[in-house]
Amino acid sequence: MTRETLHGFLFVALTIAFTVIGQVLVKFGMLDVATKGSMMLQTVGRALTNWLVLGGLTCAVIAAVCWMLALARLELSLAYPFMGLAIVLVLVISPALLREQVSPIRWLGVLIVCVGLWLVARK
After folding, report:
1. Among the four 70, 111, 115, 123, which has the fewest Cβ within 10 Å?
2. Which of 25, 117, 19 is nearest to 60 (CA)?
3. Burial of 56: CB neighbours in 10 Å, binned 0-12, 13-18, 19+
4. 73, 7 in Cβ contact below 8 A?
5. What is the pLDDT of residue 79?
6. Contact 71, 79 (CB under 8 A)
7. Which 8-state DSSP code applies to residue 74?
8. In this predicted model, what pLDDT tens digit does every residue of 48-62 receive, in sequence order?
9. Residue 114's domain spans which residues?
């Protein structure tokens, strides 16, 4: 594996990390912001002034930059399937941090994603 390829995978890993962190931050921020029956514009306005939501959106921008750097070094058909790891990590984190219930069918879906990632990684 070349140095360029290793750097590509590092940027894929950073993309995944910032994507997951960003999603969790936005969710925590929206738990603070969203109220039942509030108007959509009011909710969006409050969200755009919430530091957790803004932090999550910042993470999304950083993830996008890392993704561009990854794609400059890797084939899209190799790099893109690894974005499925973000799905896996969010599903693992959601019950622990957000106290969300994860159904067995969702766990099965994550298992299928993991098998697919294993197949892609084997080339």
Report:
1. 123
2. 19
3. buried
4. yes
5. 92
6. yes
7. S
8. 999 999 999 999 999
9. 3-122
Give the predicted TM-score (pTM) of the model. Answer: 0.88
- Picking from 43, 53, 66, 64, the residue whose alpha carbon sits closest to that of residue 23 is 53
Structural domains of the chain, count: 1
- State how far the Cα of 69 lies from the Cα of 5, in Å rounded to an integer: 11
Instruction: Compute how many other C-beta atoms are within 10 angstroms of the C-beta atom of residue 40.
Output: 7
Residue 60 structure tokens: 């999304």
Which candidate, 61, 19, 26, places its Cα nearest to that of 46? 26
d(CA 44, CA 62): 22
Q: Is 117 helix (H, G, I), strand (E, B) or coil?
A: helix
